[in-house]
Amino acid sequence: MPQELYLVSLVFSCLALIVSGVTAWLTFFCKGELVMTQPTVVFFGPDGSNFNSPKNKIYLRTLLYSTSKRGQVIESLHVSIQRNESKQNFNVWVYGEKGDLKRGSGLFVPQEGVTADHHFLLPEDGADFKFFAGKYNVVVFAKLVGSSKPNKLSQLSLEITDAQAASLNEPNTGLYHDWGPDQQSYHAHINKKPENEPDIEGLMKLMANKALKSDS
After folding, report:
1. Does 136 map to a domain?
2. Residue 174 bridge partners (DSSP)
3. Any keyword Transmembrane helix (predicted)?
4. pLDDT per residue over 90-114, tens digit each?
């Protein structure tokens, strides 16, 4: 074999070996990062399908994805919210889709991502947090399996006006912040549910429980 052809073959073999090594590293060894997209909606207000809980919560909808093929395993998520000197952690994590919510106790996030509703509630120790007028700093943290401390996924700056804060003092009232992709900002609006509005979700669960009892 001529020396030139031998050198060309050697170069291509080395390149193929490098490509194989990089592919193996990206597939099996690269840990990557957990990333969260811009939430399309952020909710401040009481918990419950009719906003009828005495305690407030934070709700958002987003896509979580991994930058590596290995994926990421989330141990827990929580939100920290701050207004001036007031700060509160919402550390009870519930996720899923409407009608199929579950308590967060670990979630595998592949490279393709997972889209879900994420509800963050207050701990059951008597703590409460009122939404007054002002600017709020909302930070989402994720604790990954094997990590020593939570990682910051996202930081949002939201605002509640005096009129919106006054409305939030009324029962069955919540505040939605909808993301506007054109202006790259959130637009807030109040949503008030009638006190006599039927709890469809609770009614469906009751009917399902009755059906299970009758079958057994």
Report:
1. yes
2. 191
3. yes
4. 999 999 988 888 888 889 999 999 9
Residue 209 burial by Cβ neighbours in a 10 Å radius (0-12, 13-18, 19+) = exposed
CATH of the domain at 168: 2.60.40.10
In 3D, which of 47, 42, 135 has the Cα closest to residue 92? 47
- Residue 125's contacts (CB-CB under 8 Å, 6 or more residues apart) are none
Ordered DSSP codes for 98-137: TTEEEE-S-EEE-TT-EEEEEEEE--SSS------SEEEE
Structure tokens at 134: 């002002």
**Sign of the torsion angle spanned by Cα atoms 157, 161, 162, 167:** negative
In a domain, 109, yes or no: yes
- Give, as one character, the DSSP assignment of residue 169: T
- Mind listing the pLDDT tens digit for each residue in 59-92? 999 999 999 888 999 999 999 999 998 899 999 9
Strands 34-36 and 56-66 come out as: antiparallel
**Residue 21 reports pLDDT greater than 80:** no
